[in-house]
Amino acid sequence: MKYKLTLAAALLSATCFVSAASAKTFVFCSEGSPEGFDPGLYTAGTTFDASAHPIYNRLLEFKPGTTQPEAGLAESWDISEDGTVYTFKLRQGVKWQTTDYFTPTRDLNADDVIFSIGRQIDEQNAWNKYINGATWEYADGMGFPKLIKSVEKVDDLTVKVTLTRPEAPFLANLAMPFASILSKEYADSLDKAGKKEQLNQQPVGTGPFTFVGYQQDAVIRYKKNADYWGAAPKIDDLVFAITTDAAVRYQKLKAGECHLMPYPNAADVESMKADPNLEVLEQEGLNIAYLAYNTTQAPFDKVEVRKALNKAINKEAIVDAVFQGMATPAVNPIPPTMWSYNKSTQDDTYDLEAAKKMLEEAGVKDLSMKVWAMPVSRPYMLNARRAAEIIQDDFAKIGVKVEIVSYEWAEYLNRSKAKDRDGAAIMGWTGDNGDPDNFLDTLLGCDAVGGNNRAQWCNQEFDALVKKAKVTSDLAERTKLYEEAQVIFKKDAPWATIDHSLAVVPMRKGVTGFTQSPLGDFTFEAVDIAE
Amino acid sequence: MFGLLLRRLAVLIPTFIGVSIIAFSFIRLLPGDPVALLSGERVMSPERHAQISAQLGFDRPIVVQYFDYLGGVLTGDFGTSIVSKKPILDQFWQLFPATVELSVCAIILAILLGIPAGVIAAVKRGSIFDQGLMGIALVGYSMPIFWWGLLLIILFSGILQWFPVSGRISLMFFFPQVTGFMLIDSLISGQKGAFASALSHLALPSIVLATIPLAVIARQTRSAMLEVLSEDYVRTARAKGLSPFRVIGIHALRNAMIPVITTIGLQIGVMLAGAILTETIFSWPGIGKWMVDSVFRRDYAVIQGGLLLIAAIIMLVNLIVDLLYGLINPRIRH
Fold this sequence. Notes:
The complex is a heterodimer of chains A (531) and B (334). With 531 residues, chain A is of the alpha+beta class. Chain A is built from 18 helices and 19 strands. Chain A is globular. The relative contact order of chain A is 0.15. Chain B is globular. Chain B contains 13 helices and no strands. In chain B, helix 5 crosses helix 9. Chains A and B meet through helix 1, helix 5, strand 8, helix 9 and helix 15 of A and helix 2, helix 3, helix 5, helix 7 and helix 9 of B.
């Protein structure tokens, strides 16, 4: 009886779903729950997709499909000659969203910008610790507290930001989700009501979609923001159906329970492409996976040894085994989609004989080493242990004995950055803002030794180039500097670059207007569905 | 009966303190630093690390942290999640009804099918029916939940399209949570089709979660029944000329139920463990999924608070089971 009942119920709900689909409701089967709705507090892409992108805007926005910052809430800006003073002219008439819990009385103005940035960089700001355990990881990671000297109001629609030093990636940083602009008027009203923590639970922004409700770990609902300053969204309602398992997301997409899903299992991509109801988008991700030698420890302190080992890594085999072809072997430390990628650098081609000879010439015999394999799957490296096994196998052929080690993730992150770490560690990175500085200086700069620079590699020549590029505003000149830096990187080989993975996005046929972001963001303001 | 209640309650207090120590220390014994995880691959400076540790109170001696935590718990403050920054208790009560709804449906399903299957297998001992049922029960017991769940989704949702793939209700229904129980809330909402949708979403996860308890209950009922059926008083009842239905259904089953009820009580604990996987597969927003996510994020506050709350509930269920014994078997009361 129970089965009959549920079957009848299923048929009924299936009918209901068809009628729901015709009401221009777009369903995104998201991969996880947002940690909250104040983007400044978090670092996860899942949180930004649910908060920063639908609800908020930033002074600058990344042009869809690129990493190029363009005008957002600021319609124009001036940079002083010495590169330390940025004056932003705000767009006029930008409306704050009206929700069940807040009705704005004014449009966006300079106070909102000062509030949104100030709370993240000033510990004395009343909103710096507005909830228990509030931390501003991104603002801190991007060095904002030390970089930004002041944020001042010139007039209602003009904001002046003064930096302590010139910093070329600053504009790109302002387009990042953590720099979303929140309403000061709303914050004040919450403060007055003694409900500050609601800023993180009931968001109000200027973005294309207005927050309607969140049922924890299940569903997030938004509706079209009728007052949106940009092009009006084509869909009426946006729903995030939180579905953590990739195989289940695929089943939901197949059954028409959602229109688009992120992060499919690599093994499912072929059958997705064969499905006549689905379309699969692909784009090179803004990421890199690499094997970082500890360049301060013998024998990895010798360039010849590192180069020899690099020649013994079969990247194609790793791409095939780990990604089923959904990745490309990496040459440079930055992905090919990024500006300043040096196309002329030569990779260390896979050649076991040459590798063996080079090791002998370097006087290295019977080498035993550790290869560290990450315990988690990340977009840039789905299965580090499998990759490590392939490396182990290849290294054995040139007489190098490999022991694969792994630790729990937090422990791995911690131990792998230690200066006296032995062997080589598999690690990776996904770009934050599309600026080469975010890879080259963050991961390979001398300041990052003992931290993100897991090769412990400090090459003065390389470091001088990337540091110079950081304070140079001219794009052509910066490009030249970064291209040169990549040549030094290849010559010195602190890493074996492994792969750049492809970002694969399967969606239902009939979905239009979705643009894949190189930064891995999911935004739906231009999306439409066929009636 | 009141004496029994008091005796059981007296045992609960040290158990609760023990559980609080285990819940508190368990997660700290695992490697992994919750503060470092906040920034992931983006390495945090040592000064920043120290600052956040101090802010979260991790820089104090562990004993001080424990008593602080215990003090909070006794006053109803289970702390705040390190990741979501929301109070643990609020989150728990928001998610707990989903787990209860799923578990109750699953246990009812397991009881309704498991007990009759066990009784029939015992009565028809040695027959093909008995062997077939017990064979299926063994398979059910050994079934990896994750695989079983996906298999059902692919068959019933993907190929046959009889049931929705995951979630608690169709996305077209949107109403405020009153009780947190979707079946009840959908009725209260008065929206046409909402209850049916909630029911259809409950079907597959309930079957998956019921599978192991069903197998255990069926096997336990069978062995308990076999034991009772060979007792003298059953033979006497039969000799008296009572109908087989009365002998089995009334005289034998009531005595056989005592170990079965123990099993059912224990299965509720097992079920909470099973709910972790079931909730993950079916995107069921319950406490199982919440706890798993928190373990990966090393969210100490959620894990210790969640574990303690779950343990308290299991203790309560066991207390009820103990009291039920008393009702069924008066000898236990003393």
